[in-house]
Amino acid sequence: MAEALRRGAAGLALALLAALPAWGTTVQVTSIGAAEVQLIVNGQNIRALRIGEVSPEGVRLAGIQDGVAILVVDGRTMSMRIGQSTMTQTVLTADARGHFVTTVRVNGVAVQGVIDTGATYISLNVADAQRMGIDYLRGKQGMTQTANGVVPVYVVNLAHVQVGDIAFYNVAGSVSVSPTAQQTPTLIGMSFLRHVEMRRAGNTMTLMRADR
Questions:
Q1: Which of 85, 119, 134 is a domain's end point?
Q2: Residues 199 and 136 in one domain
């Protein structure tokens, strides 16, 4: 078991982001008329479809009923109103060092977290784990590689993890019991990030979860 906790490697993070799997077609409804619907497809393409038309991305407007657009997206039929989207998203802004620091809630307790695509788990220190009510000593013992060398950890299950509007249940986490790790922030690693799509543009990063 290994967990590389690299926090300042912007180039490495971008390379890992490029390797993440992408979700299918995403759609947001911006207006619905009597016979036409306007959409934003894949977060950037503005499309106007009349009933029966198909966008270049393959989104088909099957009909409009009582102000609700009936769309076929990636073979699935969806009923969507104005403002609805197939994605929940959270936008983060990089700090002066290029790190994406945000509030993460673990088991309802808010702590400062850093997006880290080099971390395997949601990585916590002992003090934060105790505040979250985590009995980490009952977790699976292991060792992990960090910037400060190999340190002991306990791998645990986190009942609920939330970043912005995106939340998941039963996320794998690790608690470091090394004295050198007790002042470090929470690392938001791949046990959370693998469930979202990540897009970076300049100093902003958008995390998106498919609502399907």
A1: 85
A2: yes
Please say which residue of 35, 63, 85 terminates a domain: 85
In order along its 212 residues, the chain shows pLDDT tens digits of 333 333 333 333 333 333 334 457 889 999 999 999 999 998 789 999 999 999 999 999 999 999 999 999 989 899 999 988 888 889 999 999 999 999 999 999 999 999 999 899 999 999 999 999 999 999 999 887 766 677 889 999 999 999 998 999 999 999 998 877 677 889 999 999 999 989 899 999 999 887 65
Global pTM reads 0.69
Same domain, 42 and 110: no
Task: Return the HEC string of the chain.
Answer: CCCCECCCCHHHHHHHHHHCCCCCCCEEEEEECCCEEEEEECCCEEEEEECCCECCCCCEEEEEECCEEEEEECCEEEEECCCCECEEEEEEEECCCCCEEEEEEECCEEEEEEECCCCCCEEEEHHHHHHCCCCHHHCEEEEEEECCEEEEEEEEEEEEEEECCEEEEEEEEEEECCHHHCCCCEEECHHHHCCCEEEEECCEEEEEEECC
Are 80 and 115 in a shared domain?
A: no
What's the CATH code of the domain at 118?
2.40.70.10
Shared-domain flag, residues 72 and 95: no
